[in-house]
Amino acid sequence: MIVGVTGGIASGKSTVARAFAALGVPWVDADDVAREVVEPGEPALAEIAGRYGERVLQANGGLNRRAVREIVFADESERRWLESVTHPRIRQRIVAHLERLQAEGAPYVLLVSPLLFESGQSELADRCLVIDVPESLQIARTAARDDVDDAQARAIVAAQMPRSERLARADDVIDNTGSEADLAAQVAELDRRYRLLTTS
Ligand code: ADP
What compartments host this protein (predicted)? Predict the structure, then answer.
């Protein structure tokens, strides 16, 4: 069984993934995979450099993400081209990672993705778990964790999928307004249910 885990910025996805891992449940992080597919030596990086040239490469041969972001931000068709190069490879590699973890004997596995619904990665999951917090708390936790002020955090939250839409697509919800101990208790309860589901 694959459980997709998502939520807005600073909702607690990483914290939840670590709590599941403490119970023996491994995860694949879609953001990590998105970085993997454009590492030096990867075909996607060669295609991107072939289209945009040196300006999208760093001195060490890695991708200059800021340069790419600027190109696709300014041009919708370039954004679609970039996604056509990266998305199938990201998906393929996510599947490969998930299969490896399952073959290694995981009771079930998590796919942690900030864009689980937006990217269609939810199709890979048997269930979707949404980490939910009020926007005010998201903004406060983003500002405390990242080097951004309240206004910037507010803008990031406003640009993401609305809370109500995410909740409408959830099979399960974790309310992360409480302490990390509250969170761990909810994870333990879900883990118990998920293990029952995998054996039924
Ligand atoms: P995400 O991966 O969704 O961006 P994180 O798991 O990194 O979110 O959590 C965002 C920030 O909020 C981190 O600094 C984390 O330590 C903190 N945090 C998460 N859950 C709680 C909680 N229940 N109580 C207090 N702080 C929390």
Answer: Cytoplasm
